[in-house]
Specification:
alpha/beta; Arc Repressor Mutant, subunit A; 3 domains; 15 helices
């Protein structure tokens, strides 16, 4: 109920920043800083916080320098993976290091609700079944058999609720009148000094559609835009590209688009192979929101730094913890971050806001 209320306040009244996130530990320095909205009268925690605040040698960034990134042949699939999370891609692909992501872990639960990652996978399966007019009773039985859905009446009631939600979403898709699906197109195109190879999928008679039944993230905007750039470059007859999300929808027109060029996106990718990219997506999205909001309560850069610090403190971004260590948010969310965000995410967010 609280989440639904916050969604309504954000969507209908553009009211944000109502939730105050408390630190995990009572001895957090945030409870005892004069500039903090949080406070505590616990003397023992104050003493611990004071000890933690004593000057210590800063570990700084774990990574420094650059790797050699001389490739000019680029895979479209790899490009999409990079723009889903640039820093994770650098650690995984350039350094060959794999880290578990706490936000993607799924714990077993006896609850009639399902956890985040399970919910996302189940949504995809149910939506696909609705779009293809499959028997939903069979889908429900298979989800239960696979351990993705809960048993008993609570699970059945939750499935009916999910079915209604996703049916409404599929109705929105039908209104696009995309026509019949078309075959994927394999392409190899020269872009400046680069050669981009891959396959363009999700093609219909009247355009390309990128669908994800989830709340909009920075990676969705960038994926949508890359599909448009490729569709335009290969001369697709109808290069309109639709983005359909749980909480947002947007499509490209044939002209007047002011986003980054395909060559600029490839330049950022190559740079991100050699060293960690300064394009941090969640802080970047918040930077865009604050920049374009008439009711913003914080300067864009301050908001982005706050989001960066919160995600680190909660353990949501182990890759950031590895790469940036104890470096201050000012050193990470810096001029380079602003430049990349304003080149990539901000023009796309403007399109989204303008409708």
């Amino acid at each position: 109920m609280v989440r639904e209320l916050l969604d309504v306040l954000h969507r209908e009244y553009t009211i944000e920043d109502l939730v105050e996130v408390h630190p995990l530990h009572g001895f957090s320095r945030r409870y005892f800083r004069s500039d903090s909205s949080l406070y505590s009268y616990n003397e023992e925690n104050l003493e611990v916080a004071a000890n933690l605040s004593k000057p210590r040698k800063e570990r700084g960034k774990w990574w420094s320098g650059k790797l050699a990134a001389t490739t000019t042949d680029i895979s479209f699939d790899e490009l999409l993976k990079f723009y889903a999370h640039p820093q994770r891609y650098f650690v995984n692909e350039s350094l060959g290091v794999k880290l578990a992501n706490i936000s993607e872990s799924v714990e077993e639960s006896e609850s009639f609700t399902i956890t985040g990652l399970q919910n996302y996978h189940a949504d995809r399966i149910i939506l696909d079944a609705i779009l293809k007019e499959k028997n939903l009773k069979e889908v429900e039985r298979k989800l239960r058999a696979d351990g993705i859905w809960s048993l008993g009446n609570p699970g059945e009631l939750f499935f009916r609720e999910k079915e209604r939600e996703l049916t409404d979403f599929s109705t929105r898709l039908e209104k696009l009148e995309l026509g019949s699906p078309q075959e994927d197109i394999e392409f190899e195109i020269a872009v400046g000094l680069y050669t981009l190879k891959g396959k363009l999928s999700h093609i219909y008679e009247r355009g390309v559609v990128y669908i994800r039944y989830a709340k909009l993230k920075g990676k969705d905007l960038l994926t949508w835009w890359l599909h448009y750039l490729v569709a335009k470059e290969i001369g697709l007859k109808n290069d309109v590209v639709y983005l359909q999300m749980k909480d947002a929808e947007i499509y490209t027109a044939h002209q007047g688009q002011q986003g980054p060029t395909l060559e600029e996106m490839l330049d950022i990718y190559i740079h991100g192979l050699a060293e960690p990219s300064s394009l941090l997506l969640r802080p970047g999205v918040e930077y865009c929101r604050q920049t374009l909001s008439k009711r913003a309560t914080l300067p864009p850069l301050q908001k982005a730094r706050k989001i960066f610090r919160e995600d680190l403190d909660k353990g949501y971004e182990p890759v950031w913890s590895l790469l940036f260590g104890d470096a201050s948010e000012d050193n990470v969310i810096s001029e380079d971050f602003v430049a990349l965000t304003e080149k990539t995410l901000l023009p796309l967010w403007r399109m989204l806001e303008s409708g």
